[in-house]
Amino acid sequence: MMYEFLNIAFIVFHTALILFNLFGWIWKRTRRWNLLTLTATAFSWFILGIWYGFGYCPSTHWHWLVQRELGYSDMPDSYIKFLIRELTGLDFSAALVDTGTAVCFFMALAVSIAVNVRK
């Protein structure tokens, strides 16, 4: 029962964080927080990634531990790939999903930096 709750909590939290990373720069009140979460994401991907693998995300790691306890296997390396598969049933290549994720991330980061500096 606890793992089922954690599974849902991770889906909600992680998906909300991704959406905030992509769109949190839109509202003036959240722009600094958006830049902070984007910076934390970059730190995780590129700095922690030195030890854990490029693109490392603690939330994905912990969520996969919960999924394993629930009996799931064959989890992709990417949370975005998992989310696309769960929401649409489509199974895109990891390279395509990773490229799309990186492009969206860097676009959001560039816009976030621009609107925060412009202020």
UniProtKB/TrEMBL annotation:
User: What is the scientific name of the source organism?
Assistant: Fodinibius roseus
Keywords for the protein's UniProt record, in alphabetical order? Membrane, Transmembrane, Transmembrane helix
What protein am I looking at? DUF2784 domain-containing protein
InterPro entries given for it? DUF2784
Which parts of the chain span the membrane according to its record?
Answer: 6-26, 33-54, 92-115
Q: Name one Pfam family in it.
A: DUF2784
Q: Which domain of life is it from?
A: Bacteria
Lineage per the UniProt record: Bacteria, Pseudomonadati, Balneolota, Balneolia, Balneolales
